Amino acid sequence: MKKLSPVVPASAWLALVAVQIYVVVFTVRVELSLIQSLAISSTNPATLASEVQAQLLPELLPVLFTSFAIETSVLGVVGFSTYYCLSSLGSVKSLLLSSLKKEDPLAAEAAKAKLDSISLRDPLEMSVVLVGLGLSSQLLSLYSIELGDQYGTIVSLGFLALLIYVLYHVSSSARELYLSSVEFKGSAAEIPERSLAIYVLLSVITAGLFLAYWLYSSVKDVNSLMAS
Length: 228
Description:
Blueprint: H1 7-41, H2 48-103, H3 105-116, H4 123-143, H5 145-185, H6 196-205, H7 210-227
């Protein structure tokens, strides 16, 4: 498989965050403008909220559909990156074992037991579920602003939780394969140990921006492992 540049998923994620920020800012600006104009003209304040809701959606539809198209493309990149990382790690695992069988059959038996303990998730399954959750969140937001606020947020949190799990799974598996390569082959490209707690905390503090670096480092680790 041709190597994936780590810049691609990182840039795609930054684009996703930028689009979401723009949609939020645009929505707030339009809503405030409508509230100001309708508050002046409306004779019944009780109907102000429903009037704002009725006029807000037509204003937002072009922006929402444009952002949906961009975010769908970004989710495709994230899904492919997930598939690439997991399938590449599986290839590294198989190549390491096959090379040991040729060089030292006795060492291969010991390595097989350790490599079998490194359980990799199915690349296609994880990428499909990840993209599916992301698309579900976007579709809920398009279906109804009110419904999207209620259920889209829950699905979005599920998507982010799964993405964090996938990134940690890739990072920890790459680290374990690196240690196995050093133990049985004597050398390998160094894969640093990444703290789940610190990376999750930084992702929360930066409102998801740090996930761009996490994507970058995960793909970079996989590429380094493949090269060695």
